[in-house]
Write a structure and sequence with these properties.
heterodimer, A: 325 residues, mainly alpha, 2 strands, globular, B: 389 residues, Rossmann fold, 2 domains, six-stranded parallel β-sheet, three-stranded parallel β-sheet
Chain lengths: 325, 389
């Protein structure tokens, strides 16, 4: 299947949608962090940073599939919250229910993604509206179901994915399970984008009409992208629940966090350009930026402002670039 | 999302936003210890009053703090006396957080315990909306209630509705948050936010080395109950000359809390004390130290069981001031006394116990779920423990 033609000139990793710009930003931030906090790059603190950033990195990967295919997923934050609250209720501190709960979460994530995808592609509701609706439905449903007070609790077995680590690894010391989960899933995501499916996904986002005329089942491809995002949210929910326990705030703001990360990583809003590696590096960069703000004593209240500014700036830059190409 | 999380957070704090009253006094000009300007919610007279109440000896049965009164001023209620059994109506601000859930279940259990005197108990949940609560109170006025209990959503907005209820001649009892009118027969609540902030900040700062680094974790700004807690704590920290290295807002989000605490541990190497304006994320803060392999410094939480168990299991240096949920029993008791023509105190200030190392064991109720508030005074009530699960 050869429907994507690389634009002449720069190689893919350097041009528009390449990972070079985000790598440059990341290096600058790393230098700034190291200046202020020399031991940040020490294995212990780096491992802890990457471990706790794993959920947002996974969400960025999930969001990438949706955005690169030309859609949005605003429901992931609410989905994470719903999943955390549901998992606590299912497990109810009983270790034997850990794995069934994990399966329910993965199934639930895929189902929500499927519904998002079907409503968007079959009923032709813009995904912005579909997933905003799903967001509100999930928030409302969780409130209604739990009366505003989460019940139950996690087992230690469930929490270990997000909280525990392999101890005593040479050089690295303590490698969080969440980081290992991240590495495996990130590798799968990269493989997926290198496959035919990945190329078709970009083609669909770039020009759905051309893709359709080339015989691509656009609706199915986009629906699968939503399912991938839902699955990423499920894994993120498992890691976040493990990291910090039961909370109504578990997923708050993650939809914007993941979109900011994806945009920061050079993926074009509107689809058709960008790489999943860029999206994940965007998430690392965003988390590093927040840590940097803390190290330099900037109030955490500025985070949403910074996030909003990044989205506006990145989209403005991308629009200029694409209109001048 | 912001609006939604704000609602959830207000709920978490067990309260709603009110504008500061015009009587707020400005900040005390304390030396710079990183605590910033004093909250504009700070009212010196209220602060002095609450701190005095912390040392007051309550009247009433020692084993029933929900019947006790600090500094009582009795009022006559003979004109409300009538024969029972009664129909008692309750307009509730909201049920949308664990604190209110525990409280309301406790109130229902109290009603059940008094079943021979109460023929009907009508409850309407305003779902955290002022306008709904105004309509709710109006509806209840047409339902032949013998007494009306109101837990107002916000102070200023609900005042006219409560005044209208008073004008019908019905005995009105207000609890938790107040209203700007004297017309209710009594207003019931514990000591309040300044007491909470003072007790917790004193404990944490006294157990730190002088000049030690303290991290203050707040839920969100602009909520009066939380602002009073913080402003009283600030007074203590300024006086104790501890180095407040950060005052951060957690949004009540445990993941955010852990990241903030983790960053501060990395930034300063050690943190010598943690103060929190509410207990909701205390467990997350403790876990951040554990996961970083650092000793947990002196810290305060609240009376939620997840924190109390963690405190016990890990031998923490901790304290848990409370905003006791047993205050939900008192309005029912007050209503029955008023309808019987007995004198009651107005205001009815309840004691606000603090859980310390010494009495911790007596609050570690193994039958209750993690988010249960231990200070519910509910162990002797009908349906215990199943009702609260």
């Amino acid at each position: 299947m050869q429907i994507v033609q690389r634009r002449p000139g720069l190689p893919g990793w350097a041009g528009a949608g390449g990972v070079l710009p985000i790598l440059a930003i990341l290096v600058v931030l790393l230098i700034l962090v190291t200046v202020r906090q020399p031991d940040f790059l020490a294995p212990a603190s780096l491992m802890s940073f990457l471990g706790r950033s794993a959920p947002i990195i996974l969400l960025a990967a999930g969001q990438y599939f949706v955005i690169v295919s030309g859609e949005f997923d605003l429901s992931v934050g609410a989905l994470v919250t719903a999943q955390v609250v549901v998992a606590a209720r299912i497990i109810d501190s009983d270790p034997t229910r850990t794995w069934p709960a994990v399966l329910v979460l993965l199934g639930g994530g895929a189902l929500v993604g499927l519904v998002n995808g079907l409503i968007t592609t079959r009923l032709r509701v813009p995904s912005f509206i579909t997933t905003l609706g799903m967001f509100l439905i999930l928030v409302g449903a969780v409130y209604l179901w739990s009366n505003g007070a989460p019940k139950g609790g996690f087992s230690e077995e469930f929490r270990q994915f997000g909280r525990r680590a392999v101890e005593g690894v040479p050089v690295l010391g303590r490698v969080p399970y969440s980081l290992m989960v991240l590495l495996v899933l990130a590798a799968l995501a990269v493989l997926l984008t290198r496959s035919d499916f990945g190329r078709i996904l970009i083609a669909v986002g770039d020009n759905p009409r051309t893709a359709r005329l080339s015989g691509v089942r656009v609706r199915r491809v986009r629906t699968i992208a939503f399912i991938l995002s839902g699955l990423a949210a499920a894994v993120a929910a498992i890691l976040i629940g493990g990291y910090s326990g039961v909370s109504f705030q578990a997923g708050a703001g993650l939809e914007f966090g993941s979109i900011t990360a994806v945009v920061l990583g050079g993926v074009a809003l509107g689809g058709g350009r960008g790489s999943v590696v860029g999206a994940m590096l965007g998430a690392v960069t965003l988390e590093l930026l927040f840590a940097l703000m803390n190290f330099y004593g900037v109030s955490g209240a500025l985070r949403p402002t910074v996030q909003g500014a990044i989205i506006l700036f990145a989209v403005a830059v991308a629009t200029r670039r694409s209109s001048s190409r | 999302m912001t609006a939604l999380s704000a609602v959830a957070l207000l709920a978490l704090a067990g309260c709603a936003t009110d504008q500061p009253t015009a009587a707020s006094s400005g900040g005390s000009s304390a030396p710079a210890t990183g605590t910033g300007d004093q909250s504009k919610f700070f009212v010196q007279a209220d602060y002095d009053n609450e701190l005095a109440l912390l040392d007051a000896t309550p009247t009433g049965p020692a084993d029933k703090p929900w019947e006790q009164v600090l500094d009582p001023t009795m009022v006559d209620t003979a004109k409300y006396a009538k024969a029972g059994p009664y129909k008692i109506c309750f307009s509730n601000a909201a049920l949308n957080n664990p604190w209110r859930q525990v409280g309301f279940k406790t109130m229902q259990a109290e009603v059940e315990a008094q079943a021979d005197l109460i023929k009907e108990f009508v409850h309407i949940d305003a779902e955290g909306k002022d306008q709904k609560q105004i309509a709710d109170i109006n509806d209840l006025l047409g339902k032949d209630c013998d007494a009306l209990i109101v837990s107002p959503n916000t102070t200023a907005t609900l005042t006219p509705a409560v005044e209208a209820a008073c004008r019908t001649g019905l005995p009105v009892i207000v609890f938790d948050r107040g209203v700007d009118t004297d017309c209710p027969v009594t207003f019931i609540n514990p000591i309040g936010g300044y007491g909470f902030g003072h007790v917790s900040a004193e404990f944490v700062s006294q157990r730190m080395t002088p000049g030690g680094k303290l991290l203050a974790l707040r839920i969100l700004p602009g909520v009066d109950v939380l602002e009073t807690r913080w402003s009283a704590a600030k007074v203590v920290f300024d006086r104790a000359q501890v180095d407040v290295v950060g005052v951060e807002f957690t949004d009540g989000d445990p993941a955010k809390t852990k990241k903030i605490v983790d960053d501060y541990i990395r930034r300063y190497g050690t943190i010598d004390g943690v103060w929190m304006d509410a207990g909701a994320v205390a467990v997350a803060a403790v876990e951040a130290f554990q996961d970083a392999g650092k000793p947990v410094p002196p810290i305060n939480g609240e009376d939620q069981l997840d924190f109390l168990r963690m405190w016990k299991d890990n031998g923490l240096t901790a304290i848990a001031p409370t905003y006791p949920t047993y205050q939900w029993r008192t309005p029912i008791i007050a209503a029955l006394r008023i309808l019987d023509g007995q004198q009651v105190s107005n205001p009815w200030k309840l004691p606000q116990p603090t859980i310390t190392e010494e009495n911790l064991d007596s609050y570690l109720d193994p039958d209750m779920p993690p988010l249960h508030y231990a200070m519910c005074g509910c162990t002797g009530l009908p349906g215990y423990p199943q009702r609260w699960k």
